[in-house]
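Researcher: Hi, I'm a grad student and pretty new to this. My advisor asked me to get structures for two proteins we've been looking at. I'm not sure of the right format, so I'll just paste the first sequence and hope you can take it from there.
Model: That works fine. Here's the first sequence with its structure tokens right after it:
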Amino acid sequence: MDFYYNHSPRDAQERVLRAQLRIARERALPSIFHQRDAHDDFVAVLREEFAPGMRGVVHCFTGDAVQAQTYAQDFGLYLGIGGVLTFKAAEGLRDAVRAVGIDAIVLETDCPYLAPVPMRGRRNEPAFVSYTLAKLAEVLAMDRDEVSEKTDRNARALFDL
């Protein structure tokens, strides 16, 4: 659900999200969610459609600690963390990451957008995820190898690999 750009009517976005969740539930597939400026409506749909045993990730998560805890604790969702974590003004996101911990996080690039510092302004690419990993390790006061291992484990669980 994307209420920032509103390229589609809100009721249509909700209807399609519900349909996609039903397909994911019926086929035991993971869901990758895009939610922008639609938290309350998104959570309302999840409360009705997201069933125990389902799995998913909130792609390009940039919300606050309360939103992070709602997604991770209420629904068991992973947070997709990308280059925004490295931005100077992203302390709220860093607080959110601390609130849920490593077990709720997968790393992502959001390629070609949102390249991490020091690559900001360039076309993002998978090779840059190492900068996000380094920042995540710093934020959580963990060893980089441990962060790599745990986020890899989370991604494997998410996608049943």
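Researcher: Oh nice, that was easy. Here's the second one.
Model: And its structure:
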Amino acid sequence: MTADAPLLRHVQCLRPSGGLARMAYWEWPCESGAADAPVLVCVHGLSRQGRDFDVLAQAMRAHYRVICPDVMGRGESDWLADPAGYQIPFYVADMVTLVARLDVAQLDWVGTSMGGLIGMGLGAQPNSPIRRLVLNDVGPALEFDALQRIGAYLGKPLRFASEQEGAQYMASISAGFGPHTPEQWAALSRPMLRQDSDGFRLHYDPKIAVPFSGITPALATAGEQQLWAAYDALHGPVLLLRGAESDLLSKPTAQAMAERGPRARVHEIAGVGHAPMLVQADQVAIVKEFLLA
């Protein structure tokens, strides 16, 4: 491992339909080398992967052992035979297995979008290991128009002639991430692509779109009630980041999260929609200050 590259590890997770699947995770050891260093788990959004957090991990590894999983079906993790396993409750169960592997009683959590929902699900459990929780542009109420926007591109069997073509495509569907330099965007894009005999494809199983495509306004409303119950059950400090132009997390929802349950500390990030990528220095500083407070 070099200073700017993490270790790739795997953990076996039991699937609800039986059998095992491997979930990959990227580990950035604490710079101190301490075996008992605090643990920070960073979990990505719906169609992303654990290398999204390279910049944040390098900023935090002076204080933490940083763990960045590839949620099942993404990155270096296994693809599932049954796409019904691509849902939040099963991801929470996978994270319980990961925490057991890490052998820690307590950890901090940064979750972007889907990763935040997984963190809420784990954090709401009795005796949850989560001490401090960062929810990155996600809350219990998800705007249905934004879900439809994401569903319009999720799971398409796309092929690209080059990494540059793939990066350009991802930029076209990722305006909400906010401005990045060409170097930053290349670093964010490269782990999202896999090369094969036909060129390049996206890193994830297209079948992750199957459960997502079944979301209706009625199901979204029913899910919202469960998510609010989970949010209200959270213990410990919560930081809510909101892209000021987000179409997934509304201002009223963010305000409600500041007023109920754990009463999240809300920080809006100007010039960004869904979702801040935690690459820019000011975004990293916000997270770092909260986690180390």
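Researcher: Is there anything I should tell my advisor about the second?
Model: You could mention this: The two ends are 30 Å apart (CA to CA).
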